[in-house]
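pls design
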């Protein structure tokens, strides 16, 4: 399978929204196509994220995406990206789609002058962990991450 990875625009909403909804379901959220579409539309309208879309070159079918959110490091006084979402449809896994999306994300970050990227994944998502580590991502050892739900 040959794929194309490109930056999505609001005109790709009909392709990206179902992928995003499937991604949310992968993380045990209920299916909600309207919520997924609305959430992504807001990101596009306010330029709050960068979505890279993987398409099957043969038929233009959306087969995966990744979403990058801009962050800033005060200590380093640099711009960073949070690679918050990475999803490939189950039928297209093991064909290099995730790796292509990660390469495209890295290239985009470099082109934007971003100093680095970070991501997190579920402790039991061993396949993703292996992929990240094979591509040079390093497991953070020096900090604990805390969350506050509001």
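designed seq:
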């Amino acid at each position: 399978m040959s794929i194309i990875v490109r930056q999505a625009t609001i005109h790709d909403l009909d392709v990206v929204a179902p992928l995003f909804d499937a991604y949310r379901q992968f993380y045990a959220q209920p299916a909600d196509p309207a919520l997924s579409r609305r959430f992504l539309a807001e990101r596009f309208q306010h330029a709050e994220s960068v979505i890279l879309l993987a398409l099957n070159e043969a038929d233009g079918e959306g087969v995966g995406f990744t979403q990058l959110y801009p962050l800033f490091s005060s200590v380093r006084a640099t711009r960073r990206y949070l690679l918050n979402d990475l999803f490939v449809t189950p039928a297209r896994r093991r064909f290099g789609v995730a790796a292509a999306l990660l390469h495209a994300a890295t290239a985009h970050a470099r082109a934007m002058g971003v100093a680095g990227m970070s991501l997190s994944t579920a402790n039991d998502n061993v396949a993703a962990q292996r992929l990240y580590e094979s591509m040079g991502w390093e497991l953070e050892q020096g900090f604990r991450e805390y969350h506050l739900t509001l």
